[in-house]
Amino acid sequence: MAVRHHLIDHPPPAVWAALEEETLYGEWVAGTSSTQSERGRWPQIGSSITYMVRVGPKEFQGRTTVRRIDRPHALELEADGGPLGTARIAFDIRPWGDDRTLVILDEHPLQGFGGTLHNTVLDAVLQVRHRTMLARLAKVVDDVSAKRDIGGPPFTAQPPE
Q1: Among candidates 1, 35, 18, 37, which has minimal Cα distance to 93?
Q2: For the whole model, what pTM was predicted?
Q3: Choosing a second label site near 28 at 20 to 30 A (CA), which of 20, 35, 90, 117?
Q4: Is the peptide bond before 11 cis (omega within 30 degrees of 0)?
Q5: What is the 3-state secondary structure (H, E, C) of the chain?
């Protein structure tokens, strides 16, 4: 099980604004691109989005489904990377002082390749991925907050290059 935390210099509602915008998923989740809505209204329970997952030169279609939401405290997702298997990804979102948020990310494989080969080496790889992912989430929260602060239109993700 890989658990990592990151302190974001914005209050929890700003973090939720980024997590609840399905078009931003590919902006902060490392290794994903071309996100699109698949089912339901994100992030309602059972809603899902699809995206492309790149592993070296290979691409796989992935799907993430919302399994639990307890706004403003928790969001739990199930990511299905096709042949890579499935994983539980849980966000614990805690206010930290007046205007900061502590985000705790807990991910572990459920089924498939990742579940079969789950070990401390895989956890170490996930730690590196989580460091990148949480830093990217913080940047997206900065961008979303800046757009809202200047009264601009809601932030929309740029298509991948």
Answers
A1: 18
A2: 0.81
A3: 117
A4: no
A5: CEEEEEEECCCHHHHHHHHCCHHHHHHHCCCEEEEEEEECCCCCCCCEEEEEEEECCEEEEEEEEEEEEECCCEEEEEEECHHHCEEEEEEEEEEECCCEEEEEEEEEEEEHHHHHCCCHHHHHHHHHHHHHHHHHHHHHHHHHHHHHHCCCCCCCCCCCC
Query: Which class for 76: exposed (0-12), middle (13-18), buried (19 or more C-beta within 10 A)?
Result: middle
- Express each pLDDT in 31-64 by its tens digit: 777 788 999 999 999 999 998 877 778 888 889 9
8 Å CB contact between 92 and 103: yes
Task: Supply 98's token pair.
Answer: 């007046």
